[in-house]
Amino acid sequence: MLQWGILGLGSIARSFAEGLKDAKDARLVAVGSRDHDKAEAFGAQFDAPHRHDSYQALVSDPEVDAIYVATPHPFHKEHCLLALKARKPVLCEKPFTLNAAEAEEVVEMARSQKIFLMEGMWSRFFPLMTQLRELLKAGEIGRVRMVEADFGFRAGFDPKSRLFDPHLGGGALLDVGVYVVSLASMLLGTPDIGTIGGMIGAGLAG
Q1: Which of 77, 85, 94, 114 is an active site residue?
Q2: How far apart are CA 173 and CA 171, in angstroms?
Q3: Is 94 an active-site residue?
C-alpha cells in the first residue's frame, strides 16, 4: 500500500484526493498547507490522519511514502526539491516547472538521489492514449509526420488569477498548451533542438 502526502491543497489537490479513493493499492495519509485550518479541513474531508501546517513537516512525515506536489506553477521546483531532499518520491502536477533550467535542476536532484520523479500529465494515461500507442507500435497507422491539436477553455479575465498573472506562470502555454506539446512529443518523439533552432532562424531571416 503506497501512502501519499499532498503538498498544496487547492482544487487540483481535491481531484487527486478523490482519485485516490478508487485506488486499491494507495491511500492518502497526510496533507500539508501553510494554513493550519485549511490542512485540518482538507484532512477531515478526505480522511487523512496527518494534517501538517508546513510543507517541511509533510515531507518529513515518516508515514508518507510519496508526495504529490499540487502548488501553483512557480513553486513546483522549490517543492519538488524539498520532497526529494527528504528522499520522498514525487509526482508533480503539470507543468513540471516554469522552464527548462528549473526542470533540469529538479531532474538532476532526483537522479543523483536515485529517487522516482514524474510529471502528473494525466492525459497520457487515458485509455484512448494507451490504445493509440498500441496502434502506432503495431504500425497500423503508419509513420506520423505531423500533429495538429488544440485545447483550451474560456476563463473570465482576472489579472490577479494564476491563469493570467505572469508572476504566477499565467498564460495558455503552461496551463493547457502543455497537453498538446505532450501529445506531439508522445507521437513524434523527442524534438531535435538543433533542427528547431534552425527552422526558427530561417523563419526570422525570411
Answers
A1: 94
A2: 6
A3: yes
DSSP state of 147: -
Averaged pLDDT score across all residues of the chain: 90
Burial of 12 (0-12, 13-18, 19+ CB in 10 A): middle
pLDDT digits (tens, 9 = 90+) for 69-109: 999 999 999 999 999 999 999 999 999 999 999 999 999 99
Scan for cell 495538429, then name that residue: 148
Please name the helix (run of DSSP H) or strand (run of DSSP E) that holds residue 110, with its range, or none: helix 100-113
Q: At 48, phi and psi to the nearest 5?
A: -90, 115
Cβ–Cβ contacts within 10 Å for residue 125, how many? 9
Query: Would you call the peptide bond into 95 cis, given omega within 30 degrees of 0 as the criterion?
Result: yes
Please name every residue paired with 90 in a beta bridge, in sequence order, or none if there are none: 67, 117
**CA 58, CA 33: separation in Å to the nearest integer?**
9
**Residues 61, 67 contacting (CB under 8 angstroms):** no
CA distance 75 to 85: 15
